[in-house]
Specification:
21% helix, globular, alpha/beta, 3 helices
């Protein structure tokens, strides 16, 4: 995927590297809010935005194409992958990992607090052993299927 530099995300105090797919002509305000909120988390250093998908992480994969690491259970990474459905107003938590306790909640808070009132965060498969239930108590706009 070819990326372009992003002037839309210029914000003081954020040191995360944000890349956007060249296929995106204009960044949706929902995506911009989510990316900015995630970039404010001190551990998040890399954010990649592509059509309908956003990844943010503390680390990237090795090799020519560097992708933010979001694989659940990764021993050192902190990251999240989101599927963004503009037709239904949903953001699906596709993958999430947090090697350091507390960053999972920070990422969930950053995403859900960035959503417009009519949008929902969605968890399709919950293998967390109670994490998403705790997040559901805190956020009214979270749906667990």
């Amino acid at each position: 995927m070819k990326n372009k530099p992003v002037a839309d995300f210029e914000k003081a105090g954020i040191d995360a590297k944000i890349t956007v797919s060249r296929k995106i002509k204009k960044i949706d305000p929902v995506v911009e809010n989510i990316a900015n909120n995630l970039a404010e988390i001190d551990a998040i250093h890399f954010i990649r935005v592509s059509p309908g998908f956003l990844q943010a992480s503390s680390e990237t994969t090795e090799g020519r194409l560097k992708s933010p690491i979001t694989i659940p259970g990764h021993p050192t990474a902190i990251g999240v992958s989101l599927i963004i459905d503009f037709d239904y107003g949903d953001v699906q938590f596709f993958e999430m990992t947090s090697a350091i306790k507390g960053y999972g909640q920070k990422m969930v808070d950053a995403v859900l607090n960035a959503l417009p009132q009519e949008w929902n965060g969605v968890v399709v498969m919950d293998w967390s052993d109670g994490f998403w239930d705790k997040m559901k108590e805190k956020h009214r706009n979270l749906v667990i299927l």
